Amino acid sequence: MTLQIQMIGTGSAFSKKFYNNNALVFCNGYTLLIDCGSTAPRALHELNIPLTDIDGILITHIHSDHVGGMEEFAFRLKYACDSLRMKLFVPSSLLYPLWNHSLRGGLENSSENLTKLDDYFEVVVLEEQIRKTVAPGLDIQLIPSQHIPDKPSYSIILNDKVFYSSDAKFNRALLLELYESGRCDYFLHDCQFQSPGVVHASLSELLTLPEPMQEKVILMHYDDHVGDFIGKTGSMTFIEQHKLYSFP
Ligand SMILES: O=c1ccn([C@@H]2O[C@@H]3COP(=O)(O)O[C@H]3[C@H]2O)c(=O)[nH]1
Ligand SMILES: [Zn+2]
Ligand SMILES: [Zn+2]
Questions:
Q1: Where in this chain does the record put each Metallo-beta-lactamase domain (predicted)?
Q2: Which of 199, 221, 223, 225 to mutate to test ligand 1, by most ligand atoms within 8 A of the CB atom?
Q3: Which ipTM was obtained for this model?
Q4: C-alpha 21 to ligand 2 mean position (Å)
Q5: What is the pLDDT of residues 121-153, one digit of tens each?
Q6: What residues are in contact with ligand 1 under a 6 Å CB criterion?
Q7: Regarding beta strands 244-247 and 3-7, do their DSSP bridges make them parallel or antiparallel, or are they unpaired?
Q8: Is 166 left (phi over 0), alpha (psi -120 to 50) or beta?
Q9: pLDDT digit string (tens) for 193-203?
């Protein structure tokens, strides 16, 4: 079953040229949105992808470029899509902060008895490291990432094949282990051009990966000056916003 990925955005948090780094994963007729940032509703609109084409949303952490579009989605599902309950895959450590620190301010409505995440979504709780079949032919595993101290954040392994960093500091040991063991064939990794990479992997850190592995690394979550770095990424390439990639 071929996994396909279309980035609805590839930009860093403050990018003004690219949408937020959020991904559509297509597998066996199922469509999973990885992260739903502030620009996700507009990006999907530009791609002519209706909300109802998405079967589930997975959240990696609660920065707004990853969850800022959730309020609009929740309201549209409730009031414009006849209370359609979309699946929402949430790491267990994010359940409390996603509602109480992020969405509750806009979505809570006691008069309509809307007081929790489950009142808007069909919440499916994921435990880190435990491989979970989210749809026939689509498995995901959450890997805790180092991003912001004391704030849970996750990278994802899709179908034991594609590593998707989301927002993560450079973790050379993990990346090499996944590559050398043959566990993952492709690595979609966030990339910050300035060094040091304080909360993201920096380009100079990623360039220390062995050359054969770099051929399997596709860079994402980049800032607006990406054009200055074309040809300066070793054997790594930049993923293009909106293009459909197949991972056989
Ligand atoms: O300790 C911090 C916290 C945040 N930031 C910036 O805010 C952004 C939030 O979204 P992001 O995680 O995609 O990227 C982050 C960085 O650009 C930072 O530089 N240092
Ligand atoms: Zn981000
Ligand atoms: Zn982040």
A1: 19-221
A2: 199
A3: 0.98
A4: 7
A5: 999 999 999 999 999 999 999 999 999 999 999
A6: 12-13, 63, 65, 148, 167, 198-199
A7: antiparallel
A8: left
A9: 999 999 999 99
